[in-house]
Amino acid sequence: MPELPEVETVRRTLYPRVVGRRIERVEVLTRRQIYYPDADTFVAELEGATFTDIGRRGKYLLFSLGPALLVAHLRMSGHLYVTEPGRPRTKHLHVVFHLDDGMELRYDDQRKFGGFHLLGPDRQGIPPGLANLGPEPLSDEFTPEALAAGLAGRRTPVKAALLNQALVAGLGNIYADEALFCARIHPARQAASLAPDEVVRLHGCIRRVLTAAVEKRGTTFSLYRDGEGNEGDMYDELQVFDRTGQPCPICATPIVKVVVAQRGTHFCPRCQPAPEGVALKPRRARPGRRGNSVRVAAEPPERKPGARGLGAPLARS
Ligand SMILES: [Zn+2]
């Protein structure tokens, strides 16, 4: 699932192609990807409107069209990108915004969990997840004190707390694992059990990991592409996520994968010591899955312009 760095990268790549453009026509090919209001009203309200800004909160993209706000959430596999109208349509294409410069803003979604809410000035119909978002982790609002307050009293594993969007916005499975490794905190530790210095460390690590990932334009783990159809470069920088069985970059102990908070969770059993009384059964590594071949390559694959565009296969080659 795209997390904060991926959604931010989509925002940045769409911005120059979308802001200032008027929507001439909207095609809704899959009505259930429009969550609010109904698809007919959605189309009627948007046709003729002009994009004035693109913002982001957590994993939500926020397209301003004057007073109206078009909210997009990509969920598991949503993909928003601008393309020429001549590009063949995928079978997962659900919504097309025809722009006044002849280009198309397209929404593809293989798993169909993502979609749109269109809000008026009263913001009626706002998705509860957006209304209840916690602080933006790269903003001044997110302080060590704010994180400490969010973790206080929680008996859930700290990993589950970090995935809770009401506590801090935008973290998902990849960057929660990376931040906990950076902070040397076991993911199954009870959230409330963290000492003050651990909370300060975790706060710094969340910001550091997310900042690096935004700079690298996100992680392409399976389906994620930015608004121009390109992959992110963060995958090769990940320290523990999807690195099961590989040596820890700090101490060379093999990285372990377990289930915490119903999610596959990667950590170093030496750098991130287990809390007392917690025994976690490791998951077996599945070699050859997803990006493994890229990691063992002696040199990174050459990137020719256009070679990694929209026509690229979905799996990493
Ligand atoms: Zn280690």
TrEMBL record:
Species classification: Bacteria, Bacillati, Bacillota, Clostridia, Eubacteriales
Occurrences of domain FPG-type (ranges): 239-273
List of residues binding DNA: H92, R111, R154
UniProt cross-references to InterPro entries, sorted A to Z: DNA_glyclase_Znf_dom_DNA_BS, FPG_cat, FPG_Glyclase, FPG_N, H2TH_FPG, Ribosomal_uS13-like_H2TH, Znf_DNA_glyclase/AP_lyase, Znf_FPG/IleRS
Stored PANTHER family: FORMAMIDOPYRIMIDINE-DNA GLYCOSYLASE
Protein known as: Formamidopyrimidine-DNA glycosylase
HAMAP family for the chain: Fapy_DNA_glycosyl (MF_00103)
Coiled coil segments of this chain: none
Family membership noted in the UniProt record: Belongs to the FPG family.
